[in-house]
Amino acid sequence: MSQGDERHGALREAVRVVLAEFPASYWRDLDQERAYPEAFVRAMTRAGYMGALIPREYGGLGLSLTETSVILEEVNGSGGNAGPAHAQMYIMGTLLRHGSETQKREFLPRIASGELRLQAFGVTEPDAGTDTTAITTSAVRDGDEYVINGRKIYISRVPHSDLLLLLARTTPADQVKKRTQGLSVFLIDLHHALGNGLTFSPIKTWLNNTTGELHFTDLRIPASALVGEEGRGFRYILDGMNAERVLIAAECVGDGRWFIGQAVARANERVIFGRPIGQNQGVQFPIAQAHMAICAADLMRYRAAELFDAGQPCGPEANMSKQLAAEASWQAGNVAMQTFGGYGFAVDYDIERKLRETRLYQVAPISTNLVLSYIAEHVLGLPRSF
Ligand SMILES: Cc1cc2nc3c(=O)[nH]c(=O)nc-3n(C[C@H](O)[C@H](O)[C@H](O)COP(=O)(O)OP(=O)(O)OC[C@H]3O[C@@H](n4cnc5c(N)ncnc54)[C@H](O)[C@@H]3O)c2cc1C
Q1: Does ligand 1 come within 6 angstroms of the Cβ of 365?
Q2: First and final CA of the chain: distance in angstroms?
Q3: 9-113 sits in which CATH class?
Q4: Other C-beta atoms within 10 Å of 353: how many?
Q5: Which end of the chain is more exposed for a tag (fewer CB within 10 A), N or C?
């Protein structure tokens, strides 16, 4: 029986062919070894999916955000984790929308073909956290170069990426009218930078995600690494965030459907007190409730994606879809855990791994409180809090 919304059936079928090579056990082994899904990323690149959002003229598939979100939903719905790979799909949007034609011709076709990986996105800093405009990593123009100094934290996939998209301050905060001004975006060649003013120190986290801290000490990069105009970087980063929110919402929908599928199968099969545990309404109802929450979040994800694809404003919908889906997938994961009883804690059933993976999306790339404050202030007109 279908559990949900199966739009874009042909695309789903094509993605499932690739995913058939990567069963849940593949992800489980990687999780245990804390290894990067190299084979998965290569297969997704070969199939063109890593360049889904790159227009055809630059060698990509030229798919819509809605279609791209279906790809990521399928990855997570198969028991996998798109997290180690998904960034490449949307980080390049900043380059696509704001880069020069020379930059686009130089990088986008090579990103689409997999020759170059743009998987790393450096925004968060230890002393700024959620308050992005408080970042202090500086980029100072010196002739034909910029000199970068500062620190970034929780920057993912750096060892698996050729390029880093970096947000840095080009004008100190006390010299701009608004703190959103004076920030700029740079596309940095990691092979050149690491060891020449940039160091990466890994941070071990709850889930299998290569993340860590970056230290910039007089790193010199060519002035041509600047994307768009100097000082407008915050706006450029914001432009990409709606796409990111929708794609992550789709991943959470995939997680939720996977959890519910597992819970339903287990509740039907597991016989205790002489009957399937799923015959008890105490077991059925939480699964039904989690299913309803996922279906509702999924509708908001499609609404946000369709607005984005139509070029319409979609900030409220994109934020709501990410939050509703992240909460719903966590709810579904808890229900699966409860339905499996002790077995949910065993690594071999993948429930505990998926639960760790889906939990991230209530914190990153933006935490739940920040979404709530955006909705309260900008959608409902409540007083500004910070
Ligand atoms: C595994 C992982 C991978 C990551 N990958 C990347 C990456 O690749 N690139 C990158 O740039 N970042 C990355 N991050 C960072 C992530 O985006 C941040 O952790 C997140 O934005 C929250 O920032 P913080 O951790 O500094 O929390 P803080 O800013 O310290 O906030 C802590 C808590 O306080 C709450 N809070 C703060 N201020 C307020 C307020 N005014 N009102 C109400 N609540 C408030 C927040 O909602 C949050 O719950 C990653 C994080 C993790 C864990």
Answers
A1: yes
A2: 47
A3: mainly alpha
A4: 20
A5: N
Question: Which of these ranges, 21-30, 82-91, 188-197, has the smallest mean pLDDT?
Answer: 82-91
Residue 3 confidence (pLDDT) above 70: no
CATH 1.20.140.10 in the chain, residue ranges: 235-379
Start and end residues for every CATH 2.40.110.10 domain found in the chain: 118-231
Question: Span 235-379: which CATH code?
Answer: 1.20.140.10
CATH topology assigned to domain 118-231:
Butyryl-CoA Dehydrogenase, subunit A; domain 2 (2.40.110)
Cβ atoms of 332 and 344 within 8 Å: the answer is: no
Q: How far apart are CA 368 and CA 375, in angstroms?
A: 11
Cis-peptide, bond into residue 365, ω within 30° of zero: yes
Report whether residue 129 contacts ligand 1, using a CB cutoff of 6 Å. yes
pLDDT digits (tens, 9 = 90+) for 265-292: 999 999 999 999 999 999 999 999 999 9
Q: Determine which residue's CA is closest to atom 20 belonging to ligand 1.
A: 364
Task: Render pLDDT for 343-386 as a digit per residue (tens, 0 to 9).
Answer: 999 999 999 999 999 999 999 999 999 999 999 999 999 999 99
352 CA distance to ligand 1 middle (Å):
23
